[in-house]
Amino acid sequence: MKYVDEYRDGDTAKHYLAAIKAITTRPWTIMEVCGGQTHAIVRFGIADLLPPAINLVHGPGCPVCVTPLEMIDKAIAISSQPNVIFCSFGDMLRVPGSTQDLQSIRAQGGDVRCVYSPLDCLQIARDNPEKQVVFFAIGFETTAPGNAMLVYRAAEEALNNLSVLVSHVLVPPAIATIMSSSTSSSPSSSTSSSQTPSSQNSSSQAKVHGFLAAGHVCAIMGTQEYIPLAQHHQIPIVITGFEPLDILQGLYMCIKQLESGRCEVENQYVRVVTEQGNLSARELMTRVFRVTSRQWRGIGDIPQSGLSLAHQYASFDAEQRFDIADADIIVKEPPECISGLILQGLKKPKQCTAFGKTCTPERPLGATMVSGEGACAAYYKYTG
Ligand code: SF4
Q: Which residue intervals of the chain are DSSP H helices?
Protein backbone atom coordinates (compact mmCIF):
# COMPACT_ATOMS: atom_id res chain seq x y z
CA MET A 1 0.00 0.00 0.00
CA LYS A 2 1.37 3.41 -1.00
CA TYR A 3 2.85 5.35 1.95
CA VAL A 4 2.58 2.28 4.21
CA ASP A 5 4.66 -0.60 2.82
CA GLU A 6 7.54 1.65 1.81
CA TYR A 7 7.74 2.95 5.40
CA ARG A 8 7.80 -0.56 6.87
CA ASP A 9 10.65 -1.98 4.80
CA GLY A 10 12.79 -4.31 6.91
CA ASP A 11 16.11 -3.66 5.15
CA THR A 12 15.75 0.10 5.52
CA ALA A 13 14.85 -0.39 9.19
CA LYS A 14 18.06 -2.39 9.68
CA HIS A 15 19.99 0.41 7.99
CA TYR A 16 18.61 3.02 10.42
CA LEU A 17 19.13 0.75 13.44
CA ALA A 18 22.77 0.23 12.46
CA ALA A 19 23.20 3.97 11.94
CA ILE A 20 21.67 4.73 15.36
CA LYS A 21 23.93 2.15 17.00
CA ALA A 22 26.97 3.63 15.26
CA ILE A 23 26.41 7.19 16.51
CA THR A 24 25.16 6.47 20.05
CA THR A 25 27.86 6.98 22.66
CA ARG A 26 25.83 8.03 25.70
CA PRO A 27 22.45 7.41 27.36
CA TRP A 28 19.65 9.51 25.93
CA THR A 29 15.99 9.67 26.87
CA ILE A 30 13.71 10.66 24.02
CA MET A 31 9.99 11.34 24.32
CA GLU A 32 7.59 10.73 21.47
CA VAL A 33 4.82 13.26 21.92
CA CYS A 34 1.98 11.56 20.07
CA GLY A 35 -0.02 8.51 21.07
CA GLY A 36 -0.02 7.38 17.43
CA GLN A 37 3.77 7.25 17.59
CA THR A 38 3.57 5.38 20.90
CA HIS A 39 1.41 2.72 19.27
CA ALA A 40 3.85 2.36 16.36
CA ILE A 41 6.80 2.04 18.76
CA VAL A 42 5.10 -0.61 20.89
CA ARG A 43 3.46 -2.45 18.00
CA PHE A 44 6.68 -2.82 16.02
CA GLY A 45 8.88 -3.43 19.07
CA ILE A 46 11.08 -0.47 18.17
CA ALA A 47 12.29 0.17 21.75
CA ASP A 48 13.68 -3.38 21.96
CA LEU A 49 15.64 -2.95 18.73
CA LEU A 50 17.46 0.19 19.84
CA PRO A 51 20.79 0.29 21.67
CA PRO A 52 20.23 -0.09 25.46
CA ALA A 53 21.43 3.49 25.97
CA ILE A 54 18.36 4.84 24.19
CA ASN A 55 15.35 5.12 26.48
CA LEU A 56 12.01 5.96 24.88
CA VAL A 57 9.35 7.51 27.09
CA HIS A 58 5.78 8.30 26.15
CA GLY A 59 4.33 11.77 26.09
CA PRO A 60 0.97 13.50 26.57
CA GLY A 61 -0.18 13.33 22.95
CA CYS A 62 -3.31 11.25 23.35
CA PRO A 63 -6.26 13.64 23.08
CA VAL A 64 -8.74 11.38 24.84
CA CYS A 65 -6.27 10.66 27.65
CA VAL A 66 -5.61 14.29 28.53
CA THR A 67 -9.24 15.39 28.47
CA PRO A 68 -9.87 16.27 32.13
CA LEU A 69 -12.14 14.06 34.16
CA GLU A 70 -14.10 17.17 35.03
CA MET A 71 -14.99 17.66 31.35
CA ILE A 72 -16.04 14.04 30.99
CA ASP A 73 -18.27 14.46 34.02
CA LYS A 74 -19.72 17.59 32.42
CA ALA A 75 -20.34 15.64 29.22
CA ILE A 76 -22.14 12.99 31.25
CA ALA A 77 -24.20 15.63 33.07
CA ILE A 78 -25.27 17.25 29.78
CA SER A 79 -25.98 13.96 28.01
CA SER A 80 -28.17 12.86 30.93
CA GLN A 81 -30.58 15.73 30.35
CA PRO A 82 -33.81 15.19 28.42
CA ASN A 83 -34.07 16.43 24.85
CA VAL A 84 -30.33 16.32 24.35
CA ILE A 85 -28.50 14.50 21.56
CA PHE A 86 -24.91 14.22 22.69
CA CYS A 87 -22.38 13.50 19.90
CA SER A 88 -18.78 12.42 20.31
CA PHE A 89 -15.98 10.50 18.68
CA GLY A 90 -16.18 6.83 19.63
CA ASP A 91 -13.25 6.60 22.04
CA MET A 92 -14.75 9.12 24.43
CA LEU A 93 -17.84 6.99 25.02
CA ARG A 94 -15.87 4.43 27.04
CA VAL A 95 -13.64 6.79 29.02
CA PRO A 96 -14.66 6.47 32.67
CA GLY A 97 -16.02 9.55 34.36
CA SER A 98 -16.04 9.81 38.14
CA THR A 99 -18.97 7.41 38.46
CA GLN A 100 -19.98 6.30 34.94
CA ASP A 101 -19.21 6.82 31.26
CA LEU A 102 -21.11 8.11 28.24
CA GLN A 103 -21.81 4.58 27.07
CA SER A 104 -23.70 3.85 30.28
CA ILE A 105 -25.76 7.01 29.76
CA ARG A 106 -26.70 5.58 26.37
CA ALA A 107 -27.58 2.24 27.99
CA GLN A 108 -29.85 4.13 30.38
CA GLY A 109 -31.73 5.64 27.42
CA GLY A 110 -29.73 8.79 26.78
CA ASP A 111 -29.32 9.82 23.15
CA VAL A 112 -25.52 9.54 22.92
CA ARG A 113 -24.23 9.18 19.38
CA CYS A 114 -20.86 8.34 17.90
CA VAL A 115 -20.00 10.51 14.90
CA TYR A 116 -17.14 10.22 12.44
CA SER A 117 -16.95 13.92 11.62
CA PRO A 118 -17.99 16.93 13.68
CA LEU A 119 -19.84 18.17 10.60
CA ASP A 120 -22.24 15.21 10.98
CA CYS A 121 -23.74 17.21 13.85
CA LEU A 122 -25.01 19.87 11.43
CA GLN A 123 -27.43 17.42 9.82
CA ILE A 124 -28.41 15.93 13.19
CA ALA A 125 -29.27 19.45 14.40
CA ARG A 126 -31.23 20.22 11.22
CA ASP A 127 -33.15 16.95 11.55
CA ASN A 128 -33.98 17.49 15.22
CA PRO A 129 -34.98 21.13 15.71
CA GLU A 130 -36.84 20.31 18.94
CA LYS A 131 -33.67 18.88 20.54
CA GLN A 132 -30.38 20.35 21.70
CA VAL A 133 -27.45 18.78 19.84
CA VAL A 134 -24.08 18.94 21.62
CA PHE A 135 -20.70 17.92 20.19
CA PHE A 136 -17.78 17.02 22.47
CA ALA A 137 -14.98 19.03 20.83
CA ILE A 138 -11.76 17.57 22.17
CA GLY A 139 -8.26 17.04 20.86
CA PHE A 140 -5.14 18.82 19.73
CA GLU A 141 -4.43 21.13 16.83
CA THR A 142 -5.32 18.23 14.53
CA THR A 143 -9.03 18.15 15.35
CA ALA A 144 -9.46 21.85 16.10
CA PRO A 145 -9.93 23.00 12.48
CA GLY A 146 -12.77 20.51 11.87
CA ASN A 147 -14.43 21.48 15.12
CA ALA A 148 -13.97 25.16 14.27
CA MET A 149 -15.68 24.52 10.93
CA LEU A 150 -18.64 22.97 12.77
CA VAL A 151 -19.12 26.13 14.86
CA TYR A 152 -18.51 28.42 11.89
CA ARG A 153 -21.14 26.69 9.78
CA ALA A 154 -23.61 26.41 12.66
CA ALA A 155 -23.30 30.18 13.07
CA GLU A 156 -23.76 30.75 9.34
CA GLU A 157 -26.93 28.64 9.39
CA ALA A 158 -28.07 30.11 12.72
CA LEU A 159 -28.48 26.60 14.09
CA ASN A 160 -29.44 27.63 17.57
CA ASN A 161 -30.00 24.06 18.77
CA LEU A 162 -26.31 23.13 18.31
CA SER A 163 -23.49 23.74 20.77
CA VAL A 164 -20.02 22.38 21.53
CA LEU A 165 -18.42 21.25 24.78
CA VAL A 166 -14.85 22.41 24.16
CA SER A 167 -11.79 20.77 25.68
CA HIS A 168 -9.07 21.51 23.14
CA VAL A 169 -5.40 21.43 24.06
CA LEU A 170 -2.20 22.62 22.37
CA VAL A 171 1.04 20.66 22.12
CA PRO A 172 3.85 23.26 22.48
CA PRO A 173 2.82 24.44 25.99
CA ALA A 174 2.76 20.79 27.13
CA ILE A 175 6.30 20.26 25.82
CA ALA A 176 7.38 23.43 27.62
CA THR A 177 5.81 22.20 30.87
CA ILE A 178 7.50 18.82 30.63
CA MET A 179 10.82 20.49 29.92
CA SER A 180 10.40 22.96 32.77
CA SER A 181 9.71 20.17 35.24
CA SER A 182 12.48 17.97 33.87
CA THR A 183 15.70 17.81 35.83
CA SER A 184 17.57 17.61 32.56
CA SER A 185 19.43 20.85 31.99
CA SER A 186 20.97 20.29 28.59
CA PRO A 187 22.18 17.46 26.41
CA SER A 188 25.77 18.32 27.18
CA SER A 189 25.19 18.30 30.94
CA SER A 190 23.69 14.85 30.68
CA THR A 191 26.95 13.41 29.50
CA SER A 192 27.89 12.71 33.07
CA SER A 193 24.67 10.78 33.66
CA SER A 194 25.27 7.29 34.90
CA GLN A 195 21.64 6.32 34.67
CA THR A 196 20.78 3.25 32.75
CA PRO A 197 17.50 3.09 30.87
CA SER A 198 16.04 0.77 33.48
CA SER A 199 16.87 3.09 36.33
CA GLN A 200 15.39 5.98 34.37
CA ASN A 201 12.19 4.04 33.99
CA SER A 202 11.69 3.94 37.72
CA SER A 203 12.83 7.49 38.28
CA SER A 204 10.34 9.97 39.65
CA GLN A 205 11.81 12.65 37.40
CA ALA A 206 11.56 12.94 33.65
CA LYS A 207 14.97 13.41 32.09
CA VAL A 208 13.96 14.07 28.55
CA HIS A 209 16.83 14.96 26.24
CA GLY A 210 14.97 15.11 22.93
CA PHE A 211 11.47 15.09 21.46
CA LEU A 212 9.81 13.49 18.49
CA ALA A 213 7.05 16.00 17.80
CA ALA A 214 3.74 14.92 16.28
CA GLY A 215 3.72 15.15 12.50
CA HIS A 216 -0.01 15.58 12.09
CA VAL A 217 -0.13 18.50 14.55
CA CYS A 218 2.62 20.20 12.54
CA ALA A 219 0.77 19.47 9.30
CA ILE A 220 -1.74 22.03 10.61
CA MET A 221 0.50 24.36 12.61
CA GLY A 222 3.79 24.18 10.71
CA THR A 223 7.20 24.09 12.34
CA GLN A 224 7.83 27.65 13.51
CA GLU A 225 6.35 27.56 17.03
CA TYR A 226 8.78 24.79 18.01
CA ILE A 227 11.90 26.86 17.30
CA PRO A 228 11.73 29.01 20.48
CA LEU A 229 11.02 25.85 22.50
CA ALA A 230 14.14 24.12 21.18
CA GLN A 231 16.22 27.24 21.76
CA HIS A 232 14.89 28.09 25.23
CA HIS A 233 15.10 24.55 26.60
CA GLN A 234 18.21 23.61 24.59
CA ILE A 235 16.61 20.44 23.29
CA PRO A 236 16.34 18.86 19.84
CA ILE A 237 12.83 18.54 18.44
CA VAL A 238 12.33 16.35 15.39
CA ILE A 239 8.91 16.50 13.74
CA THR A 240 8.19 12.88 12.94
CA GLY A 241 5.61 10.69 11.21
CA PHE A 242 3.93 7.53 12.39
CA GLU A 243 5.25 4.57 10.43
CA PRO A 244 8.18 2.50 11.76
CA LEU A 245 10.71 4.03 9.38
CA ASP A 246 9.46 7.51 10.24
CA ILE A 247 10.11 6.78 13.91
CA LEU A 248 13.55 5.27 13.25
CA GLN A 249 14.61 8.13 11.01
CA GLY A 250 13.26 10.66 13.54
CA LEU A 251 15.23 8.94 16.32
CA TYR A 252 18.36 8.90 14.19
CA MET A 253 18.02 12.65 13.50
CA CYS A 254 17.38 13.37 17.18
CA ILE A 255 20.30 11.27 18.45
CA LYS A 256 22.58 12.78 15.82
CA GLN A 257 21.73 16.23 17.18
CA LEU A 258 22.25 15.11 20.77
CA GLU A 259 25.60 13.52 20.03
CA SER A 260 26.82 16.64 18.23
CA GLY A 261 25.45 19.07 20.83
CA ARG A 262 22.88 20.67 18.52
CA CYS A 263 19.39 21.73 19.66
CA GLU A 264 17.34 22.44 16.56
CA VAL A 265 13.94 21.80 15.05
CA GLU A 266 14.18 19.33 12.19
CA ASN A 267 11.44 17.96 10.00
CA GLN A 268 11.51 14.23 9.28
CA TYR A 269 7.89 14.27 8.01
CA VAL A 270 8.60 16.39 4.93
CA ARG A 271 6.06 14.49 2.83
CA VAL A 272 3.31 16.07 4.96
CA VAL A 273 4.64 18.98 7.04
CA THR A 274 5.57 22.39 5.66
CA GLU A 275 7.08 25.32 7.49
CA GLN A 276 3.82 27.27 7.47
CA GLY A 277 1.40 24.39 7.95
CA ASN A 278 -2.15 24.65 6.68
CA LEU A 279 -2.85 28.37 6.58
CA SER A 280 -6.57 28.01 5.87
CA ALA A 281 -7.03 25.70 8.84
CA ARG A 282 -5.01 27.97 11.09
CA GLU A 283 -7.03 31.01 10.01
CA LEU A 284 -10.29 29.22 10.82
CA MET A 285 -8.99 28.13 14.22
CA THR A 286 -7.94 31.70 15.02
CA ARG A 287 -11.34 33.00 13.98
CA VAL A 288 -13.44 30.55 16.03
CA PHE A 289 -11.21 29.87 19.04
CA ARG A 290 -9.12 31.84 21.48
CA VAL A 291 -6.14 30.56 23.44
CA THR A 292 -6.82 29.92 27.09
CA SER A 293 -5.44 27.98 30.05
CA ARG A 294 -6.51 24.36 30.26
CA GLN A 295 -6.47 21.48 32.68
CA TRP A 296 -4.71 18.35 31.37
CA ARG A 297 -5.81 15.10 32.93
CA GLY A 298 -3.10 13.79 35.20
CA ILE A 299 -0.87 16.80 34.55
CA GLY A 300 -2.86 19.77 35.84
CA ASP A 301 -3.35 23.32 34.71
CA ILE A 302 -1.04 24.50 31.91
CA PRO A 303 -1.20 28.23 31.10
CA GLN A 304 -2.20 29.12 27.55
CA SER A 305 -2.40 25.46 26.60
CA GLY A 306 -5.93 25.19 25.28
CA LEU A 307 -8.64 26.64 23.12
CA SER A 308 -12.03 28.04 24.05
CA LEU A 309 -14.63 29.60 21.81
CA ALA A 310 -13.93 33.18 20.77
CA HIS A 311 -16.35 35.72 22.24
CA GLN A 312 -18.08 36.03 18.87
CA TYR A 313 -19.08 32.34 19.09
CA ALA A 314 -19.71 32.14 22.85
CA SER A 315 -23.41 31.42 22.29
CA PHE A 316 -22.37 27.98 20.97
CA ASP A 317 -20.64 27.10 24.25
CA ALA A 318 -22.43 24.09 25.78
CA GLU A 319 -21.04 24.88 29.25
CA GLN A 320 -22.89 28.20 29.20
CA ARG A 321 -26.00 26.88 27.49
CA PHE A 322 -26.48 24.08 30.02
CA ASP A 323 -25.18 26.04 33.00
CA ILE A 324 -23.16 23.14 34.35
CA ALA A 325 -21.45 24.82 37.27
CA ASP A 326 -18.06 23.53 38.36
CA ALA A 327 -19.49 23.11 41.87
CA ASP A 328 -21.91 20.49 40.50
CA ILE A 329 -19.02 18.29 39.38
CA ILE A 330 -17.22 16.22 42.01
CA VAL A 331 -14.21 14.63 40.38
CA LYS A 332 -13.03 11.26 41.63
CA GLU A 333 -9.97 9.64 40.03
CA PRO A 334 -9.24 5.97 40.75
CA PRO A 335 -6.33 6.08 43.22
CA GLU A 336 -4.38 3.25 41.58
CA CYS A 337 -4.31 4.91 38.14
CA ILE A 338 -0.92 6.45 37.31
CA SER A 339 -1.86 7.62 33.84
CA GLY A 340 -0.82 11.17 34.71
CA LEU A 341 2.73 9.97 35.33
CA ILE A 342 2.66 7.92 32.14
CA LEU A 343 1.53 10.94 30.12
CA GLN A 344 4.55 12.89 31.41
CA GLY A 345 7.03 10.13 30.65
CA LEU A 346 7.63 9.48 34.36
CA LYS A 347 6.30 5.90 34.36
CA LYS A 348 5.45 3.22 31.84
CA PRO A 349 2.17 1.30 31.72
CA LYS A 350 3.50 -1.96 33.13
CA GLN A 351 4.65 -0.10 36.23
CA CYS A 352 0.98 0.39 37.14
CA THR A 353 -0.17 -2.26 39.62
CA ALA A 354 -3.61 -2.31 37.99
CA PHE A 355 -2.30 -3.00 34.45
CA GLY A 356 -3.92 -6.13 33.03
CA LYS A 357 -5.46 -6.99 36.41
CA THR A 358 -8.10 -4.56 37.57
CA CYS A 359 -7.59 -2.41 34.47
CA THR A 360 -8.13 -3.87 31.01
CA PRO A 361 -9.60 -2.47 27.77
CA GLU A 362 -12.87 -4.21 28.67
CA ARG A 363 -12.93 -2.68 32.16
CA PRO A 364 -10.66 0.40 31.99
CA LEU A 365 -9.86 2.48 35.04
CA GLY A 366 -8.16 5.27 33.13
CA ALA A 367 -8.37 6.87 29.71
CA THR A 368 -4.94 5.62 28.64
CA MET A 369 -6.37 2.08 28.62
CA VAL A 370 -9.35 3.11 26.47
CA SER A 371 -8.08 5.31 23.73
CA GLY A 372 -6.78 4.05 20.41
CA GLU A 373 -3.83 6.34 21.12
CA GLY A 374 -3.43 5.50 24.83
CA ALA A 375 -0.11 4.10 26.04
CA CYS A 376 -1.70 1.52 28.36
CA ALA A 377 -3.92 0.27 25.52
CA ALA A 378 -0.84 -0.05 23.28
CA TYR A 379 1.09 -2.14 25.83
CA TYR A 380 -1.96 -4.31 26.53
CA LYS A 381 -2.68 -4.90 22.85
CA TYR A 382 0.84 -5.56 21.64
CA THR A 383 2.75 -6.89 24.64
CA GLY A 384 0.04 -8.50 26.77
S1 SF4 B 1 -3.17 0.49 33.46
FE2 SF4 B 1 -5.18 1.43 33.85
S3 SF4 B 1 -5.08 2.12 35.97
FE4 SF4 B 1 -2.97 1.79 35.28
S5 SF4 B 1 -2.29 3.76 34.50
FE6 SF4 B 1 -3.09 2.61 32.76
S7 SF4 B 1 -5.25 3.31 32.63
FE8 SF4 B 1 -4.53 3.87 34.69
A: 10-23, 35-43, 46-49, 63-66, 69-79, 90-93, 102-107, 120-127, 144-157, 171-181, 197-201, 215-221, 227-233, 244-260, 279-288, 318-322, 339-343, 375-383
